[in-house]
Input
Amino acid sequence: MVNQESRPTIHIPGTTSHTIAPRRGCHLREGTLRYLKAGTGAPVVLLHTVRTQAEHFRSLIPLISDHYTVYALDLPGMGYSEIVPGASYQEPEMRAGVERLLTELDLYDVTLVGESLGAVLALTAAADLPERVRRVVAVNTYDFRDGIARSSPLARMVIGGVLTPGVGPVVARLENKTVLRGILQGGLGDKTALRADYVDELLQVGSRPGYPTVARAVYQNLPSLIAARSRYTEVKAPIHLVYGEKDWSRRSDREADKELLPAADFMQVPGAGHFIALERPDVLGDLLNTVA
Output
């Protein structure tokens, strides 16, 4: 559960906070998962980006909660989901957290919406659970070499240090407001879309005991996310691929995914970067409400 000392500093009107307990007798290193819930209607599950949390969708949730019951998940170990010592943060284990939400809440007719890391997990979870997933909206899939290190020279330096054997755990603990803001702003066409209170919230989460280990593991898991592209062709549900014009992915990265998913609808958002849910929630809201 989210305790008093680690209570989120941001509240999204109309949402309530809930948890999913680890499954009894499960041999995996599972922790409690936290999610936000809002609205009524068919279920939409929102999956956040690398180094963020459910509040990443603070502006999108009010735009769609009149049409859907919205579930915004804190991925395993991230946000206020439990940090379990020794847990893996490779793609299969992160995907298992998404699938726990769908199965433990017994959700069907689900629209899975993921951005960045969440986009990869939305696609692979849909491949695993075709009977539960109605549609997938994959925003700026995080499945290409270098990943967040493409954000900026600062990101290359910091993430390179975090991934360096030996000193990496030390560098991961040195995150501060200037560094975090600089890295995340590299994912935006409009730098002002990164609000100060959201950076403060992310820093609070980053100060949780054990979180630097989680963050480093998530950065290290990029090869497993790239490998997960092999699962995309198994998705049976309709797919919308959404990219920001200034996303970290290159044209060749996007074309490679389009070749894997030739039937997918494709949209490019002019001027937007990697974090479209921060910059242009209206575009995602219009897309979702149109297909509701």
Residues 67 and 292 are 7 Å apart (CA to CA). The beta strands are 16-20, 33-39, 42-47, 68-73, 110-115, 133-139, 239-244, 265-269.
